[in-house]
Amino acid sequence: GNVGMTGVSYNGTLPNAVATTGVEGLKTIIPIAAISSWYDYYRANGAVIAPGGYQGEDTDNMAEAVLTRENPEVCGQVIKELTAG
C-alpha cells in the first residue's frame, strides 16, 4: 500500500529510521524536530559525549536506547557487529 509516517522529536526520528530500511509501501515521511544525523546528535564537534562516564561506548548504548522490539535478543548480533567496527 501507500504509507506515510509523521512525528515530532523521538516519534519524528522513527520515520527517518524506518525510511532507511527500504520497507515496502512507505511513500513519504514528515519528521518534525527529529534527529537527522546521529553523528551530530551524539557528538560535539566530533568528540564522543561519554554516556554515563563510559568513554566511547556510544554505538551500543544508542542501539540499546532505541531498541523497542518485544524480542530484543534478535538484534544482539547486529549490535555486536556495530560495536566491533
TrEMBL record:
GO terms of molecular function: hydrolase activity
Pfam families reported for this sequence: Peptidase_S15
Domain Xaa-Pro dipeptidyl-peptidase-like: 1-73
Name this polypeptide is given: Xaa-Pro dipeptidase
